[in-house]
């Protein structure tokens, strides 16, 4: 129940619905018991036990205490029926049937209202749980997802949360209604026969114990099902993202076999889980009927041989006994659901309780402008065991452009990740205007920076909405101005709906150069004082590179820029070029100075492989 307690805290904002549900369930339990008790006078009328005109019934009974309460209420009701019917049995029967119908109507109305109110609670918890998961997902640092499958995260937010609704939250319906129904029904049963009720409760714990044995392995099986679902969703996500490569390399069969193998495992685990779960209902029903059978034997003897109970009371008692079995079965089913839901809750809570290692310090300083310089001192960083940056130093004054060059794996993009604080440094420090990054609010830090990456990350929306990610309140005129600076207005203007054109999933309706220019326009619209360009032209053809390069030059005017470059054309005019090799600085200076040294930089220029 540990996980259930952690999930149930999401129900606190909806406690008013819980209170209304409890009130409705109280009435449901009362009317449920009364509807069976009302059968007694009806059966008495039907079978002539209280014939109209009998002296003992016509006389108004006297209340003699709780021990004779059942007989008092029975005789009082019979007295009222006979008074109303005036020797007409059919009239008495209609009155009693009308009462039974009204009680069953009120019982079902109370049941509907209970479910009506609990629906708002269940769906509210579901909504807030999903919102909390999504919020946590976007708050966690990039390092958290470096070894995680996207499909597994998607599975936790979708299917695992639904499993919690079907398992954990379904017992909210039972947590009040079923126990209340049982308690009120037991009270009614005790009114009819204390001896018979004690006999019943010798057998119910035995059947409950046998039922509980079935559900022990449900959590383990459920965990396997949910993990496998996360795995095949990951395969699906990777397939959709890499469809061009899969088709280009005729690898359809490879990915199909992986997916088929995963769904086969899911099939086997699901069968095992559901078969155990499905066993709960017939097992509990059979054990319930076994209890009823024993009750019929014992109670029948009390009616036929011992004369301790009349027939109509015994039939009503049997109805009440069955009225206990239904909620008891519901509670046993709910216990299976809790075991099954434990696995889903554990996976969901794993995300919610994951510690975010990159957080604002309590003494974080708000900062809205950039005045002097970016300083990087003695920087060391590693993703896992080996350092990818070693003893890195750099100083970038306001308005300057720093270029980082080197072969793949030399640590260039890592510096961009550290400047934006997607990762925290292991040693050394980065500061802006002499304030360490860790002492700045992340939101303020990133508001000072614009980012253009090698892969143009665009979203399935209009051009306008993609650009407004940089500035949500931007006007259309501001969008057009940004597009002109990014050398993108001409092609956008030629589109059927202009800036309101939808660009498709990941912007795939556009060419690589067009997507990159939109990425630049987005950064321009944000208008930050610091611009980070992470290999912004490396994936482009010559014509697109020329257009994008012009856009970059427009954007970098009067800004402080850090350019991670693959191609010489993007860095020739940089104020300082740092050459990296295996995470260490091997050369630095301006383009002409480095060419004169005839060292690593010159070799890279000659090879034109700024990878």
Description of the structure:
With 611 residues, the protein is α/β, with parallel strands linked by helices. The protein folds into two domains: 2-352, ABC transporter type 1, transmembrane domain (ABC transporter transmembrane region fold); 401-410 and 445-607, Rossmann fold, CATH 3.40.50. Helices cover 61% and strands 10% of the residues. The strands form two sheets. It has a six-stranded mixed sheet with strand order 6-7-8-3-9-10, with helices on both faces. A four-stranded antiparallel sheet has the order 2-1-4-5, covered by helices on one side. A hairpin with a 2-residue loop joins strand 9 (576-581) and strand 10. Helix 8 packs antiparallel against helix 9 and helix 9 runs parallel beside helix 13. The longest helix is centred in the middle third of the chain and has 55 residues, at 252-306. It starts with a helix and ends with a helix. The model is unreliable at 49-57 (pLDDT under 50). Residues 19-340 form the ABC transmembrane type-1 domain. One of its GO terms (molecular function) is ATP binding. It is a multi-pass membrane protein. It comes from Psychroflexus salarius.
């Amino acid at each position: 129940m540990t996980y259930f307690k952690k999930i149930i805290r999401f129900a606190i904002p909806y406690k008013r619905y819980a209170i209304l549900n409890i009130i409705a369930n109280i009435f449901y339990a009362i009317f449920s018991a009364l509807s069976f008790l009302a059968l007694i006078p009806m059966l008495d009328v039907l079978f002539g036990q209280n014939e109209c005109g009998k002296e003992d019934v016509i006389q108004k009974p006297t209340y003699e205490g709780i021990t004779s309460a059942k007989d008092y209420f029975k005789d009082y009701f019979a007295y009222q029926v006979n008074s109303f019917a005036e020797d007409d049995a059919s009239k008495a029967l209609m009155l009693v049937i009308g009462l039974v119908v009204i009680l069953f109507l009120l019982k079902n109305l109370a049941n509907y209202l209970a479910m009506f109110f609990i629906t708002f609670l269940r769906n509210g918890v579901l909504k807030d749980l999903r919102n909390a998961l999504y919020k946590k997902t976007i708050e966690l640092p990039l390092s958290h997802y470096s070894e995680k499958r996207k499909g597994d995260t998607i599975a936790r937010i979708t299917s695992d949360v639904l499993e919690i609704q079907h398992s954990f939250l379904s017992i909210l319906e039972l947590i009040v209604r079923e126990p209340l129904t049982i308690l009120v029904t037991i009270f009614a049963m005790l009114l009819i026969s204390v001896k018979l009720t004690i006999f019943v409760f010798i057998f119910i714990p035995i059947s409950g114990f046998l039922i509980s044995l079935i559900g022990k392995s449900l959590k383990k099986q459920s965990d396997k099902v949910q993990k496998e679902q996360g795995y095949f969703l990951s395969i699906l996500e990777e397939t959709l993202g890499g469809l061009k490569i899969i088709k280009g390399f005729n690898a359809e069969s490879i990915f199909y076999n992986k997916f088929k193998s995963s769904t086969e495992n899911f099939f086997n685990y699901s069968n095992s889980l559901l078969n155990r779960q499905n066993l709960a209902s017939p097992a509990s029903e059979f054990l319930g009927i076994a209890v009823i059978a024993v009750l019929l034997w014992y109670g029948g003897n009390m009616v036929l041989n011992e004369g301790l109970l009349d027939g109509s009371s015994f039939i009503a008692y049997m109805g009440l006994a069955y009225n206990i079995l239904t909620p008891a079965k519901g509670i046993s089913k709910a216990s299976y659901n809790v075991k099954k839901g434990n696995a889903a809750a554990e996976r969901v809570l794993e995300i919610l309780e994951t510690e975010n290692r990159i957080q604002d310090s309590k003494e974080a300083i708000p900062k809205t402008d950039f005045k002097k310089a970016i300083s990087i001192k003695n920087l060391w960083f590693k993703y896992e065991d080996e350092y990818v940056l070693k003893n890195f130093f750099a100083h970038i004054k306001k308005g300057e452009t720093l270029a980082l060059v080197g072969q793949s794996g030399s640590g260039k993009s890592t510096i961009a990740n550290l400047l934006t604080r997607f990762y925290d440094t292991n040693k050394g420090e980065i500061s802006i205007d002499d304030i360490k990054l860790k002492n700045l609010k992340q939101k303020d830090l990133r508001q000072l920076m614009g980012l253009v990456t090698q892969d143009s990350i665009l979203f399935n929306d209009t051009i306008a909405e993609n650009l407004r990610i940089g500035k949500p309140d931007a006007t259309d005129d501001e969008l057009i101005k940004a597009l002109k600076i990014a050398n993108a207005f001409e092609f956008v203007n030629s589109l059927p709906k202009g800036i309101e054109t939808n660009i498709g999933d990941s912007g795939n309706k556009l060419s690589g150069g067009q997507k990159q220019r939109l990425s630049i326009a987005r950064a321009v619209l944000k208008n930050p004082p610091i611009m980070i360009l992470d290999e912004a032209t490396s994936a482009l053809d010559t014509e697109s590179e020329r257009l994008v390069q012009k856009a970059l030059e427009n954007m970098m005017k009067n800004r402080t820029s850090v350019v991670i470059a693959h191609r010489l054309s993007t860095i020739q005019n940089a104020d300082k070029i740092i050459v990296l090799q295996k995470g260490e600085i091997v050369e630095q200076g301006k383009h002409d100075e480095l060419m004169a040294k005839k060292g690593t930089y010159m070799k890279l220029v000659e090879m034109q492989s700024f990878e």
